[in-house]
Write a structure and sequence with these properties.
single chain; 6-stranded antiparallel beta sheet; mainly beta; SH3 type barrels; 2 domains; 6-stranded mixed beta sheet; Elongation Factor Tu (Ef-tu), domain 3
């Protein structure tokens, strides 16, 4: 099971087990009723979800029917198994790139440690001898090979 961080439970919402959550990505979220999520190493099924805005999402878990049932999971991170994410065959998500070796001109430059968005595009954070940040755009990414665990890049001249 490869767990991917989705967000965090913030607080209860009303009395019937609904909770207010922050999700990292509400626009492309695979989270919907029937999906399984992991909180504190426990698996829960999403009963309903309401995306209020980019800062707050309301989630109701199956068999969590009262505010008192939320005690152990409040302020905890929400994860989803990679297999639960809806993707086309061969589609790659950003989390698939974590720990891939970054290769430029045949030399390993480091390993993808993380990523973030600068508002215009996603940026790969590469840890190596020298930390590198590489925009995830065609100009810099030659190929991604999940079988070989590598991303071949064209490093910007300033690196």
């Amino acid at each position: 099971m490869k767990l991917i961080l989705l967000g965090k439970i913030l607080k209860p919402h009303a009395l019937k087990g609904m909770m207010s959550c922050y999700l990292e990505n509400t626009e492309d979220s695979s989270l919907k009723p029937g999906k399984k999520i992991v909180i504190n190493s426990q698996t829960y099924e999403v009963e309903s979800i309401n995306f209020h805005n980019s800062k707050k999402t309301m989630i109701k878990l199956k068999n969590v029917d009262h505010i008192n049932d939320l005690g152990a999971i409040l302020n905890q991170d929400i994860y989803i198994d990679r297999e639960e994410i809806d993707c086309e065959d061969g589609e790659i998500i950003l989390n698939d790139l974590i720990n891939l070796d970054v290769v430029s001109n045949g030399l390993v430059q480091g390993r993808v440690d993380n990523f973030y968005s600068n508002g215009a595009q996603d940026i790969l954070v590469v840890k190596g001898k020298t930390p590198i940040e590489i925009p995830l755009i065609d100009q810099f990414i030659k190929s991604i090979d999940l079988n070989k665990n590598t991303i071949e890049v064209i490093l910007p001249e300033y690196l």
